[in-house]
Write a structure and sequence with these properties.
- The radius of gyration is 16 Å and the shape is globular.
- It contains five helices and no strands.
- The protein has one domain.
- The protein is an all-alpha fold.
- Helix 4 runs antiparallel to helix 5.
Amino acid sequence: MRAAAVCTTSSAKFMDAEMLQLLELIFGISVKESEIEIFKNYARRRPSTEENSDLGLAEVFALCDKDIFPSVHNVLQLLLTVPQTSVTVERLSLL
């Protein structure tokens, strides 16, 4: 899912509003563009103590306060919950 890729700080399209608003069509989650922009700036300006300051999806979710950024929090929670890939089960042949 491309939406999960834009939720990492190393992505050139970090928190791209158009991509996240596609989730509204698929899952019915309302995403406010102004809230996305504020969270994007908040996440990029956080103090970094590590040499590698890029955050993955789980770290971005931990950074997102549910009370301050409710729709962004819901989107991130959805992306962490829904499987990103599917795996087929191997068939076992009974002898």
